[in-house]
Design a protein that fits this description.
Elements lengths: L4 H19 L9 E8 L5 E8 L3 H13 L1 H11 L7 E6 L2 H20 L1
Parallel strand pairs: 2-3
Antiparallel strand pairs: 1-2
Length: 117
């Protein structure tokens, strides 16, 4: 596979799944979830979808239960919108980068406040 095709496929899958979630997968457990990135194997058979969830641990668990429950629907919708030989099997994973960045920002703010005292 060409080197520049894989990132385009990942971006396309990210956009489509984001649109599916924004349109409202019919599961009420899916809260405010944002697709942050997608990692696809070179043979396009599997795709890891990294999702950031707004809320606490309980909200995150509830959202991932809803996502995993709606996985077959999301994958079917994805397959209807892409023209690959095989639709990648998707799996959802938590992306902690946003919460990690927020924690770093919080620590930096605390350090700055201590220096100003």
């Amino acid at each position: 596979m060409k080197a520049n095709r894989l990132p385009r496929v990942e971006e396309q899958i990210k956009r489509i799944i984001g649109e599916i979630l924004a349109a409202g997968a019919k599961d009420p457990r899916i809260g405010f979830a944002s697709v942050t990135r997608v990692s696809v194997t070179p043979d396009l058979k599997q795709a890891k979808v990294f999702v950031s969830v707004y809320g606490d641990e309980a909200e995150m668990a509830k959202t991932f239960a809803g996502l995993n429950s709606a996985r077959s629907y999301i994958q079917r919708e994805l397959g209807s919108q892409v023209s690959y030989r095989n639709t990648p099997v998707i799996s959802f994973h938590y992306d902690s980068s946003i919460s990690y960045a927020a924690r770093i920002e919080e620590l930096l703010k605390e350090i700055k406040e201590r220096e100003n005292k």
